[in-house]
Amino acid sequence: MRRSTAWGLGAIVVTLATWGYLAWLARVPELWAIELKRSLFGWAVVELLLAVAVLSIALAREKKIAAFRVIVVGVTLICAVGILEASSATDLLHWKLALERMLQEDSSITWKFDPDPVLGWKRRHHDKWVSPSIADIERKFSMRPARQVQLTFTYDAYGYRNPRTLPRADVVLIGDSYIEGFNANDDEVVARKLEERLGRPVESMGITGYGTLQNLIVFDKDAPKLAPKGGGILLLRGQRPIR
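The chain above was modelled as a monomer; its predicted structure follows.
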């Protein structure tokens, strides 16, 4: 067997074994398999590129010319990837966000913010959009969404997640994504469920990512506008009530 043929067959065998193993890992619904797949995927891409280079040389008649072309293409790719990585490392461009916008997948709840000089960020007034249901863990580990549904997000004149702007409310809920309802439909958020049980108007003033200081600003600035009965304001941080 010629040496070039052996190299070519070796490249094919290693590539099939590598990607076959990744395909098997993708079918294992365990955390260790998901993490291993994510860590091996980059190396598998590098191996695939090397295999293509080896096959290009092995199958060529003029192996020196083929090797030269492979080197030129390889150096070009390395330089291109280096430029992309440098732009990300220096915070010039966030490629994940850029690609999501290019692919028109920018309707996620995390996108719809406006800068605010006091709070840092707020939701847009009277905003409304539809986004596919995907949880934090599903997004982080590139898992298939468990719920194949579209979620509706509706915000009132104050920029909080309520289907209508209330002139007043008996109860005001303040907090972060637990109150806003990060992966929930409009009718699934805690304010709507509490409103159903009480039979009284409930205002949701939770914003994803807000911390205690931001919640206190909302408590002092926005919540009193609705004049909740008897100071009926519940200030939450995460899942634990503070006040």
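The chain has a mean pLDDT of 85.
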